[in-house]
Amino acid sequence: MPMSFDGNSRVIDVVQAGPEAREVLFSHGYNLGEGFVDVLSQYQSLEDANREGRLRDLEGLLAALNNTYQK
């Protein structure tokens, strides 16, 4: 089933999509750390993470995620 991500998608949604999504998230500057135990960060939207400087190139991240999961 194809998935679609946008700025309102939560970080946890991306993480749960699979290992490719985690890699895309990391390549755009979001470091999940060990175990990803920060609950507040898990439920943060991608737009909020971008605004706080935890992500680089939100549009590129969304394009990469959507290209990966629209197949």
In short:
With 71 residues, the protein is an all-alpha fold. The protein has helices at residues 11-17, 19-27, 39-42, 46-51, 58-69.
Characterise this structure:
The protein has one domain (11-69). By secondary structure, the chain is an all-alpha fold. The protein has helices spanning 11-17, 19-27, 39-42, 46-51, 58-69. The model has no long low-confidence stretch (mean pLDDT 86). 54% of the residues lie in helices and 0% in strands. The longest helix is centred in the C-terminal third of the chain and has 12 residues, at 58-69.
Strand content range: under 5%
* Number of E-type strands: 0
Helical stretch tally: 5
CA radius of gyration: 11 Å
Sequence of secondary-structure elements:
HHHHH
**Assembly type:** single chain
Question: What labels would you give this structure?
Answer:
single chain, 71 residues, mainly alpha, 5 helices, globular
List the helices and strands and how they pair.
Elements: H1 11-17, H2 19-27, H3 39-42, H4 46-51, H5 58-69
